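Incident review: delayed structure delivery

Summary: a single-chain prediction request sat in the queue longer than the usual turnaround. Root cause was a stuck worker, restarted by the on-call engineer. No data loss occurred. The affected request and its eventual output are reproduced below so the record is complete for anyone auditing the incident later.

Affected input:
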Amino acid sequence: MAKKPSRRMRELLEKVDDNQVYQPLEALQLLKETATAKFDETAEVHIKLGIDPKYTDQQLRTTVSLPKGTGQTVRVAVIARGEKVKEAEEAGAEIYGSEELIEDISKGMMDFDILIATPDMMPKVAKLGRVLGPKGLMPSPKGGTVTADLEPAVQAFKAGKLEFRADKTGIVHVMFGKASFSAEDLLANLKALQETVDRNRPSGAKGRYWRTVFVSASMGPSIQVDISALQDLNLSDAA
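Output delivered after worker restart:
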């Protein structure tokens, strides 16, 4: 039997018109208004694309640098060897090491949000695929997490760089800030995400690429965003 929505959720649902497609800034103002939990909720976006990721030329996996940050403390781990381990430490990585770190992760140690590996360590990291893959933590060149240039990589992920991918149904789920952000800052992050999704359109995507975009606070109702209005938005003009 389906669980009835709570009184709090029923009240929030009344604020959102299911039949309305909202202008981007209006949607984000509404997201903030419906973030009434007792903690700082995460702002989420769910983008349905006209792709079928079972085909390699219709897969989307890339990174975005959110100009206003994520609002979260990002814990970075680095697998490297020799001098590169010291470089990872100096760059601000919380966890760093070589074979011993691979061993710790294989035993279930997951005290990090991003895992970066140098290219020479990837043959050894490959055996962690079964552990890291389901959590979306496996380092990849496309995601910017396989690199020998550790300092800028570590600092970029700490400053608001996110890796994301379309799931098997062609939907992209991304957190793009906190409900405590201003609506304008959330809009800057959402715009950066939209431009990244457009810029990385898979070669095999045919027909209408963007289907729907919904935003919500992590404990709030879904709010549909006008895709064309978001794409047409020029934040430099609005500044």
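Verification: The radius of gyration is 19 Å.
Action items: add queue-age alerting; document worker restart procedure.
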